[in-house]
Amino acid sequence: MSSIKIVVHSGKGTKLEYTFKSDVLFKMMFVKYPHLLKRMVANLINIPIESITKFEISNSEIPPEEIGKKFCRLDITMIVDDKRVNLEIQVQDEGNYPERVLYHFSRMYSSALPAGNDYSLLPRVVIISIIDFVLFDSKEVHSEFQVLEVTRHTSLTDKCGLHFFELPKMPEVSSIDPNNEKNLWLALFNAETEEELAVLSKTGGAVMGEAIEAYRGVTATEEFRNLEWMREKTRRDEAQALGNARRQRDEHWQGVVAEKDAVIHERNAVIYEKDSENAVLRAQLEELRRQIDSN
What we know:
This protein is an alpha/beta fold. It has helices spanning 23-32, 34-44, 64-67, 97-111, 181-190, 194-203, 205-219, 222-294, and strands at residues 55-57, 75-80, 83-90, 124-131, 142-148, 155-166.
């Protein structure tokens, strides 16, 4: 297995009250500032921003009642020219992320074709996942998946694009090339301290400066703070629900194992009893043989 370098934040500096990994923050901010979202998406999927003629956010609403639902996930779905693009942030590794991304892709892909239309009219669907855990055994921050033939690597179709950006593999902010806008955006999501934001603001030019100002404006609003409080409460409830489910599962299987152990113990006791009876019978038979031989 290859060695993967993981950057661990030293913890030095003024810790941000809210980071860009907050799905409430990222959705509120980019819905309010769609031109920043457009620029970031163009960089993440490697298309010239000048080539984008149509850009729409399909799910701009953030209903408070949705925030309070257990296991609700906030994402941004867009129409980018003739493509359907979905952007999501995932902080916790729940062990099934590739399968969930593929399922999400399949739902977006299948729902994009109006009834009666030809399959050739299905749009390209792109899923962008910014994740705060290591998913692949490689050093690259960015991994892109398509549908390819396994030997020749020829493409079956260009309708599928799955992009994963692993934040723990990002270099320190101070070492990022100021001309690499993709990495600047990812560093923004990875920032944990005010000092890191200051470096990005200084080296990232006008775009990073505007993004950081947008961040400060959104996080200062009462609406965001209320939604973030509700979101955090929901996360705690989710963690408790998952913990209870695991505990009940463990207790269930402990009970099953204990029941099986009891059955095995009972059977062993019966076998031991039969063995004892057989031993007595064998002794009696041996004694009878000796008496016969003596006569």
